[in-house]
Amino acid sequence: MSGSSRDEIRLVDLEVFYRVGVPDAERANPQRLLLTVTMFRDVSAAAVADDLTQTIDYFQVSRRLLALGEGREWRLIETLAVEIADLVRREFGADAVAVEVKKFILPETRYVSVRVERG
After folding, report:
1. Quick one: fold of 8-118?
2. Which residues are known catalytic residues?
């Protein structure tokens, strides 16, 4: 079944504070973003064995993403979303990843978001 599974592990609206924005002034201070990360991986073996090591440890993913912004900045949330998707695939073994970054910059909107899929 490996490779054909559409099992999902989701972190929904993880609150992070990153320096992001095109103008320098916007990147001067970290701003609140919400990250939704959907990780695709066959969890059958983990479910049968009831074994965390055979799945994606979402707690560790959340800690990695909370720390990601330390000493970093991005101009575009597109760049950030792609970087997160690549990181989760590389470091946590997801077969595929979808990442949505929500930014609260336009007062006339609830939020602006970018969503990318990799894998």
Report:
1. GTP Cyclohydrolase I, domain 2 (3.30.1130)
2. 103
